[in-house]
Amino acid sequence: MIRLISLDAWNTMLRLDLITRAIAGRLGERIGVDEELVLRTMISVYRELKPKWVSGFISDSAIVDVAQQVLSEKLRISRNVVLRAVEDAFKTMDLHELVYPDVWSALEDLSKEFKLAVVSNVFYWPGRLTKVVIENVGLSQFLDAQIYADEVGVAKPDRRIFMRLCDALGILSEEAAHVGDELIEDIGGAISSGMKAILIKRGV
Do 154 and 195 share a domain, yes or no? Predict the structure, then answer.
């Protein structure tokens, strides 16, 4: 019997494309570079670092610092400029726009029958900023826990991040299911911990 449903944050509940473009826009404005060039550079850095991160050459607790540093080097700017652009993007955009329309009703309905939680990896920004979005738009009222890779030092697909959630809520892994958009990180990680897994694919 399922008692807990955990959800990935970005590309499951929240629109990664919008916040990434917002950060690229803020960076472009600050350094006088076309937004599309910044966006392509952000994607390139992600593709470059992800294999090193997954294989353990970059620790889960350090990935945000490393990603921001490498991006700043590629753009030939200081990391502080990247930090300010990230913070500005989260502060200035309408955070409600980041929420997929079906999330509100889904969480409201599911919260009546299950415990709900977020289990999320990080990259260009720390988990605390994702938490700010979730809290400011009112989704936290449906959640019993939020776990972010940089805060616990373990990232998906490592089974330990899922087990940490189950332990925190006093629920066996076989009594839990995880919903996410990544086949390896979300589905593979959840299954390796003994949880059920549901793959979601957004249209953007």
Answer: yes
7-26 tens-digit pLDDT: 999 999 999 999 999 999 99
Same domain, 42 and 54: yes
Contact 130, 48 (CB under 8 A): no
Q: How confident is the model at residue 204 (pLDDT cuts 50, 70, 90)?
A: low
Straight-line distance from the first to the last Cα atom of the chain, in angstroms, rounded to the nearest whole number? 33
Strand ranges for 81-182 from DSSP E: 115-120, 145-148, 176-180
- Rounded distance, CA 191 to CA 196, Å? 6
CATH of the domain at 81: 1.10.150.400
Return the exposure string of 136-157: e unless at least 16 CB atoms fall within 10 Å of the residue's CB, then b.
Answer: ebebeebbbbbbbbbbbebbbb
End residue of a domain, out of 95, 117, 147: 95
Model pTM?
A: 0.94
Asked which of 70, 95, 120 is the last residue of a domain, the reply is 95
Q: Tell me whether residue 63 is in a domain.
A: yes
Range of the domain at 74: 16-95
User: Could you give the CA distance from residue 177 to residue 191 in angstroms, rounded to a whole number?
Assistant: 9
Residue 181 within any structural domain of the chain: yes
For the chain, what percentages of helix, strand and coil (3-state, to nearest 5) are there?
Answer: 60, 15, 30
d(CA 85, CA 89): 6
pLDDT in tens, 84-124: 999 999 999 999 999 999 999 999 999 999 999 999 999 99
